[in-house]
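Re: [ENG-882] Designed sequences occasionally contain unexpected residues at chain ends

Forwarding the minimal case from QA. Structure tokens:
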């Protein structure tokens, strides 16, 4: 069916060439936090990432693909599944894709998915599991990289505390490289976190300038909550007091600090060191 002016029907497959099509406008609006919050939706780009998300049974609302890849077997498979689940399937021109992605050389497949957040009350870490808690993170690239790294080491989830950047924003989703679909995410206000932390069954570890322990000398053979602060100031005194152990990562060069995502990665690989084996 080809009708740029028609109102989309769930499961409908349409050809869209107009840059002013209402559905295209709705997708573009998801670049703004306000519309993501109101709709509960987010955008991801790339054939592999969209296909992986559909394979993971994430609820897909809209699938968009370029006409030049319409016959690709992966695109056809994903389109069939999206259609079967009631998603709106659009075949579009490259100009429309560029409009959606705000890129001159856009990805050929874009998906609009429902957001998912884990209820913090349901979190039950395994005996040697690790969760990452991030307070006030502002950089979407850092957040996305931390989610990706958490996925890579086999962490069990990421908790976002307070005024943290939206994990479902385009830049953060891109930086996760698909891990947004594999890593449970939860949100807590600052007050909610301090109440929730009282029920944590293992240890809470944070990096801090006043840390007395080398991060390599801590016993991580229990449930670990790794608490990391924002890019500028790290964890403040309130959060430091909520930690059972404060650690430092030794440095030898002249840099005064590590990038947040790098520091979190260093910590995670140490925490998981005895459980990561080459195949």
């Amino acid at each position: 069916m080809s009708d740029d002016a028609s109102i989309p029907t769930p499961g409908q497959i349409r050809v869209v060439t107009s840059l002013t099509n209402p559905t295209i406008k709705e997708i573009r609006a998801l670049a703004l936090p306000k519309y993501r919050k109101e709709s509960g939706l987010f955008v991801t780009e790339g054939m592999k990432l969209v296909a992986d998300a559909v394979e993971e049974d994430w609820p897909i609302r809209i699938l968009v693909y370029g006409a030049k890849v319409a016959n690709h077997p992966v695109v056809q498979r994903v389109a069939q599944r999206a259609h079967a689940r009631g998603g709106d399937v659009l075949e579009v021109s490259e100009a429309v894709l560029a409009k959606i992605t705000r890129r001159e050389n856009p990805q050929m497949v874009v998906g609009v998915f429902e957001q998912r957040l884990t209820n913090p009350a349901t979190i039950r870490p395994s005996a040697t599991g690790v969760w990452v808690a991030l307070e006030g993170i502002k950089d979407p690239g850092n957040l996305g990289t931390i989610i990706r790294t958490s996925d890579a080491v086999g962490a069990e989830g990421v908790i976002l505390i307070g005024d943290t950047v939206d994990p479902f924003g385009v830049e953060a989703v891109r930086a996760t490289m698909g891990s947004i679909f594999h890593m449970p995410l939860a949100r807590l206000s600052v007050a909610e976190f301090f109440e929730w932390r009282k029920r944590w069954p293992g240890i809470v570890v944070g990096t801090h300038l006043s840390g007395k322990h080398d991060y390599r000398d801590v016993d991580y053979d229990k449930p670990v909550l790794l608490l990391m602060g924002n890019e500028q100031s790290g964890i403040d005194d309130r959060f430091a007091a909520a930690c059972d152990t404060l650690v430092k990562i030794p440095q030898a060069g002249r840099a005064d600090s590590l990038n947040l995502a790098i520091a979190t990665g260093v910590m995670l690989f140490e925490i998981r060191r005895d459980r990561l084996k080459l195949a």
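QA comment: On inspection the terminal residues look reasonable. Residues 83 and 111 are 12 Å apart (CA to CA). Proposing we downgrade this to a documentation issue.
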